[in-house]
Amino acid sequence: MEKITDHVYLVRIPIPYDFREVNCYLIEGKNGFTVVDTGDCTEEAMAVWVKTLGTSIPIEKVVITHAHADHFGLAGWFQQNYQASVWMSVKGYEELQRARSLFVDQKYRSSLGSFIEQHGMVVQTGQEDRFHRFEAYQFKPDVLFQENQELLLGDSIYQTIPTPGHSPDHVAFYQAQDQLLLVGDHILQGINPIVISEKEGDNPLQGYLSALKRLREIKVKYTLPGHGQQIVDLDARIEKLLGHYEKRWAQTLQGIQEKGSTAFEVSQFVYGSNLSHERASSALIQTITNLVYLESLGHVKMEKDHHDGLYYFFKKAVNSY
Ligand SMILES: [Zn+2]
């Protein structure tokens, strides 16, 4: 447990993939501690929590930044073992239920898989299971909150700021007095968070960029992300991310051939073709996100080819974002 302010602590919980660790936070209050994000539902994660909390630290509630299993996976476990109440956003619970029902029907893989395949990548089976430990989804939140609502976490008021993009339900928690922002996976220090498209019609980058710009308007001293190191200078990090996107869009447009290209072809142009299946899928999803955004700005056009069933992107002659 690492102390960040007088009342806020960081606990790094191991996860068996991607970033290797998720940053969970403990906010101390007179009725016990509030846990912000839990880690995924693994024996290893539970063991770290048990060791960290011992028998003497009471847990009052658990709040969740977004409905990805590495962030909510132990919510049910906290309800059962610590009698904590679990707080989640209305949208977050909708996302959780959607994922749960797809999971129960075993459709999650096929719906995401066919989305990816229509964009030109051949999906290898048996790859997606790690995201979906069934037990992680088996809980019902005790309290649902809205976006732009004030919540009492510990003894302080936090505002929920909608920060969609990495997931549609993503929220950040902001505490004005200490200028502290729990930013989840919306912004990370050394890495550009993936902005996820999951189905036709999604244009998540629009909301993601507006939320980034909105965060420039608040005063922040501590920016605490869901993975990796604390963000030292939020404004600088936001500027860097915005600049990164400008470059990516130029590269993305460059990767589209005259005869049209699939998103997978463009993603191989941008990210290279020597990636593991998992990384190649993430690269493809980010590329689809960029292409759909560029389409909404009128720079590209997407068309379905009725012979092979794939989507192709074509460049249109417009030269500014
Ligand atoms: Zn995460």
Automatic annotation (TrEMBL):
Q: Which InterPro entries match?
A: Metallo-B-lactamas (IPR001279), RibonucZ/Hydroxyglut_hydro (IPR036866), Sec-metab_biosynth-thioest (IPR050662)
Residue span(s) of domain Metallo-beta-lactamase:
21-227
Q: What superkingdom does the record give? A: Bacteria
Please name the Pfam families in this protein's record. Lactamase_B
Q: Please give the Gene3D superfamilies that the UniProt record associates with this protein.
A: Ribonuclease Z/Hydroxyacylglutathione hydrolase-like (3.60.15.10)
What SMART domains does UniProt report for this protein, alphabetically?
A: Lactamase_B
SUPFAM superfamilies reported in the protein's UniProt record: Metallo-hydrolase/oxidoreductase
Spell out the protein name for this chain: Glyoxylase, beta-lactamase superfamily II
Q: Which organism is it from?
A: Mesobacillus persicus
Give the classification, highest ranks.
Bacteria, Bacillati, Bacillota, Bacilli, Bacillales
